[in-house]
Amino acid sequence: MYRPRARAVTHAAFATALALLCWLALAGTTFAQGEGQPKLPAIALAVGKHKLSAEVAAAPETRERGLMFRYQMKDDEGMLFVFPSAQRQSFWMKNTPLPLSIAFVDARGVILNIRDMMPFTTEGHPSDGEALYALEMNRGWFAQRGIKAGDRIQGLDKAAKGR
Questions:
Q1: Which of 96, 132, 124, 127 is nearest to 114 (CA)?
Q2: Is the C-alpha dihedral spanning 16, 22, 25, 31 positive or negative?
Q3: What does the radius of gyration of the chain's CA atoms come to, in whole angstroms?
Q4: Is the pLDDT assigned to residue 99 strictly greater than 80?
């Protein structure tokens, strides 16, 4: 028995499914571009008695990506940004869903200043001097441990040199 109407419905369903698959393929490309960078090699750091593990972002492409698109980070983990030379730095939180605190650190390992940063904002958070390093941790990590400007970070000598 011939059913032209049923065939038309089948063709419409097939066309809709094909369009949906094409859209999903294109969306997958967009989502891949918005993924966080894979975990970077980490080093052990300490501030006084407080120990942490910091992924090291020493290359321009890893510093640029930082913690963008990351949705979680353990309490004792962070990211250390290493620059080629000490200079005034400024960070923002575009595409970064984690609330973070950042410590700007000079070439001797001394914390210059600490700033709290809100997710997805484009407000600049500058260093108070020439920083060779910046250490991002979960928001409040430094304050909860009484860490402040003038404190020294140990272990920075194990970080790769910034390029």
A1: 127
A2: negative
A3: 23
A4: yes
